[in-house]
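Entry:
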Amino acid sequence: MGHMYEEGLGVAQNYTAAMEWYRKAADGGLAEAQQNVGLLYYYGYGVAENAREAVRWFQMAADQSLAAGEYMLALASQQGKGTSLDYAKARRLFLSSARKNYGDAQLMYAYMLQAGEGADSMPLSAYVWGKIAEANGVEAAIDVTSLSSILLSDREMARAESTIAQCLAEGLDNCPE
């Protein structure tokens, strides 16, 4: 019901009403609702923007292993918005969400691997996760994969391609960090 108000389906778009519905469900422990409450605070829809409060709700959703909650908590940690800047935490959370097949997390994890945020740059792993994001329909991942492919030798590219095939066939839980 809450997303009807948020998306304006048949009713005037009303973030305040959406927040009421989400808040009730979130207080009841529903991870998706906790995530949505967090988003409304993060972007200031229907409430005053409050990144710290948003992070609190993202953490609750992430604690329940919701991929979207892990993604937003990772993004906040990577940007230092509403929480301390923490690349190691961001990488860990992006990876967890990426392994749940969350495309945006796959892209951001690939980006962090490519850019060397929080550790050395790892173009082979960045290429692998970028290609998985591309396979998941995230077109922006081509920015990461095209840069990575320039940095990799033919042998590394062959290894990356077989790793991608293995990840897609066997599931992302075993896909390398």
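The two ends are 38 Å apart (CA to CA).
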